[in-house]
Task: structure prediction
Amino acid sequence: MHGEPRRVCLLTGAGGLLGSEFCRRYAGEYDILAVCRTRAPAVPTQHEQYVDPLAPDEHLWENRGAVHAVYADLTDPHDVERVIEVALARFGGVDLLVNNAAHLGGYPHTMLDGDAALLDLETHLLTNVVAPFRLALRLAQESWQHRAADNHARRRNVVNVSSLSGTHTYPFLGQAGYGASKAALNALTGHQAHEFGRFGVRVNVVVPDSFPARVATSAVADAVVRLDRGDATGEAVVVDGRAG
Result:
């Protein structure tokens, strides 16, 4: 509808491959709070913008979709609280939470060789499960749980970014911790969909194959937006080589 405020998206993992692609494709459609750990997305932010060296004072159209970048370690509960605080203070609310940040580390041999798998497991779980859980929970507690009518009107929702590693066992080594964390994220999606539905917030999960090696990164970003525009909740949307 003409005059309707732009949708607000809180996007984690914004400096990674999918995060940057999402920002490039959709910063013109959403007001994006781009949460990064060490690397900003490859788009204009409040800190970095494009400049024409021949006309440095000219306003460039490429800067109209600038995102608001926030640096945070989402394994730190205090940083999660700060991200929610910034989002609500700057935008007044969040319509779409995209839990995209992920720890991808693996171990080079088998999980029995030394302690590499054990040492990495905690980071997998904290980044890939606990952080999405905490972000959605805090956002619900601080903003959503008593605003059912507004949530329905704004079509508010959460989209978790998982992986086929959470549903399949692959023949190559090093995937146990990552796959287990993504399987837990899939289960979390269903539980949050059930509980958040009571106040009008949908929760879904995108389950992509490896990108960009096997599927286009743009196809994964587009799947997130299709879920935001739709009505589904508690759904797992697979993005594989058959996806358009």
Observations:
- DSSP finds six helices and seven strands in the chain.
- The CA atoms of residues 207 and 238 lie 5 Å apart.
